[in-house]
Amino acid sequence: MKRRMGVTRKQDEAINSEQILALLETGEHYWKLAADAQEKRGIATIMAFVVIGYGASLRGEEVPLASIKGLNEFWKESMSRGLVMVTLRGKFKGEDNLRWHLVPIVDVTSSGIQVRKWVRRLLFIRCHVDGVEEGPLFVNEAGKQARLSDYNSDFQMFITQARERHPKVFSSKVDVEDYNLRRSLRRGSTTQAHNNGVPASTIELINRWRKKEAAKGAEPGLAMRQVYTQALSALETTLRYSRSL
C-alpha cells in the first residue's frame, strides 16, 4: 500500500508465470471459438500485450510503443536465434526525444509461455488484415496508437475467465480489479525471475536499462539496426531473464 497526500493507494497485484499460462490457455480457448476476425483481434491484442509486458518486464505504458516496422525487420533473423526482438519506438519516461529500444524475449519461456505465437498472430492481423507495414502494433478503435487504458478492462475480463477455468491458480482473496496492465505484469515478472534464481545483476540490467542508457547519453537519432547490434552484444544475459519465466 502506498500513501500519498493522505490517500492510500493499493499496488497492482503481481501476476506469476502459472497465472500467465492460465490466462494464455483461456485466450487460446476463446481464439478457437472466435466467430470472426474481430474477436480474434481482441484476443490476440490482449495476449500479445501480456507476453511482451511480462517477458520484457515492461511498464504498462511502454508496451504500446511496440513497432510493426521493427518487428518485421528482425522477424526471421530473430526466429533463427529462438527469440522475438521486440522493437519499441517512442518517448520513454524521463526523456524528451523519440528513439528506438530493442528488447529480446525468448520464443518460449521455461514454463511454456509462448511469446512468438501471440506476437505473430497480432502482427499478422495488423499487416495482412489492416494492410499496414509500419506504425504501432497496438492500436485503439480509431487506428491510433493505443494507451494501456484502452485494454485494461479487457485484460481484467480475461483474468475473470481464467480464474473460472483455473480456480486453483488464482487466490480467491485477490480482487480482479487488483490486476492491472500498468504494473501487474512488470511486478510479477521481476518476482518470478527472482524466485527462479535469476541473478540480481541480471534483473537489475533488465529493469534499469532506462537509467543506464540515460547515464550514457543515449542518442535519439541512432538507427534501428545500430540499436539491434547493441542489443545482440548483451543477448545471453538478457535472454537469461525471459528464459527463466
Commentary on this structure:
By secondary structure, this protein is mainly α. The protein has helices spanning 17-33, 37-55, 68-79, 115-129, 152-165, 184-195, 200-207, 209-216, 224-233, 235-244; strands at 2-4, 7-9, 83-90, 99-106. The strands form two sheets. Strands 1-2 form a two-stranded antiparallel ribbon. Helix 1 crosses helix 5 and helix 7 crosses helix 10.
How would you summarize what this structure contains?
The chain is built from ten helices and four strands. The chain is mainly α and 245 residues long.
Describe the secondary-structure layout.
Elements: E1 2-4, E2 7-9, H1 17-33, H2 37-55, H3 68-79, E3 83-90, E4 99-106, H4 115-129, H5 152-165, H6 184-195, H7 200-207, H8 209-216, H9 224-233, H10 235-244
Antiparallel strand pairs: 1-2, 3-4
Helix pairs in contact: 1-2, 1-5, 2-4, 2-6, 7-10
